[in-house]
Amino acid sequence: MKILFASSEAHPLVKTGGLADVSGALPRTLRNLGEDIRLVLPAYRSLLERVPNPVPVARLTLGGGQTVRLLRTLLPGTRVTTYLVDHPPAFDRPGNPYLGPDGQDWPDNADRFALFARVLVELARDRCGLDWQPDLVHCNDWQTGLVPALLSLEPDRPATLFTIHNLAYQGLFDGATLGRLGLPPEWWSMHALEFHGRLSFIKGGLVFADWLSTVSPTYADEICSPEFGFGLDGLLASRRDRLSGILNGADYDQWNPGRDPLLPQHYNRRSLAGKAACKAALQRRFGLDVRPDRPLFGHIGRLVEQKGIDLILAAVPQLLERQVQLVVLGSGEARFEAALRQLQAATPGQVGVEVAYDEALAHLIEAGCDGFLMPSRFEPCGLNQIYSLRYGTVPVVHAVGGLADTVVDASPTALREQRATGFQFHGASLANLVQAIDRALQAWARPDLWRQLVTTGMRQDFSWKRSAGRYAELYRTLTTPEAVAERRHG
Ligand code: ADP
After folding, report:
1. pLDDT, tens digit, for every residue of 109-122?
2. Residue 335 falls within a domain, yes or no?
3. CA 97 / ligand 1 centre spacing (Å)
4. Domain boundaries, position 405
5. Do 160 and 179 have their domain in common?
6. pTM score of the predicted model
7. Residue 369 near residue 288, CB atoms below 8 Å
8. Are 446 and 477 contained in the same domain?
9. Atom of ligand 1 nearest to the CA of 356
10. Are strands 81-86 and 36-42 parallel, antiparallel or unpaired?
């Protein structure tokens, strides 16, 4: 089976969030399982700086006259063939893949990712001279949303799978964009790409892909309801029989406290002494009182309302009252960055803040904390709570999406059955968060119980292998001779 995996970011070449983690780890795992899976990424300037000698393999001219070079490389540390779509006017610019230096979306994002989609269609139809015809194109998020739509116009096309990593990001543009991009006028319909008077890239995937998936079973249910559906719940509910929830995996090669090179000391569930050393190192790093007897909670994430950073900020007085220490690592909206900086200045020794994107520090926080706060209002999958589990850092989470699917609440029954791994709360409010923190602190006060939570969490296996197997199964279902015949005859 040949699979073309299309994404706008992939670790370790370019990353703004969890999509990059998936787009790096899933192709690598599937490749190791023997699948012929190839990755396609835009050749951003920052990405090309990380790829020493990409090989030019094709040059094509698109319908609009743009010329594009395809470069080939391997995703670093893997055997995954990776094609880079090189069109300097679209991708040779500084900074973030989606945002300009002013923090606003690049004004030509529609054109940039439409071009990316058109190149993907050429690759999918083997019209680039590579002599490689994929059976299935796996698209991810709105940046690749036009691919299933454009492929639907092609005879004998490969199967399409569209994965939703976060429904909040939809790729919405003004109505004139449809014509400017040369898309069929009949797509200006609520049954195609129109969404309340705007052009929606994500609808290209949601409407036209043969199958949909999202990154946890609970999120798959949630997005079919108005509360989590961002106006797309009706469409998603109508396709519920073709929507799977497959949990993301963690990359335990990178996230393993037993041999993480970014930690001052290693540890595992049989020998936790190294974790105490990591806690002391983290307290020192943030200028906190170096006290093993103070519970230390952490948070890492994009500073946006989705992640509930406002709830964490609001909970600080209660945390301080309870002698809890807090460290936060994040970057994002200016108002949250400012509030965090202010907080740090006001509470030296008790709260540590780093406004940055810092992989190495993220590892030390996962290792050095006792508890990890994830009060996300919605969370398609979430990775940090999965890392926390492996690092023996007990997660306190809002019971939504992937958080509900990965953390087992410390109910009396789950504790008795030694299944509990953390604390869930229902309803994203300050009171509910604080109540869950209080339950965690009661458990912390009982060292045997806490240790049981820690070691049960560390035993959980959310490796990519299992999730990748589910994707491989789905790929097979979508490419059986019957499925191919069904597509051919509409
Ligand atoms: P999302 O994709 O919504 O941002 P996820 O939990 O799925 O959230 O993935 C976030 C990824 O980005 C994780 O690997 C997390 O460790 C990382 N991350 C987020 N913010 C930071 C930061 N400020 N510094 C380091 N890593 C971060």
Report:
1. 999 999 999 999 99
2. yes
3. 16
4. 273-461
5. yes
6. 0.95
7. no
8. no
9. 23
10. parallel
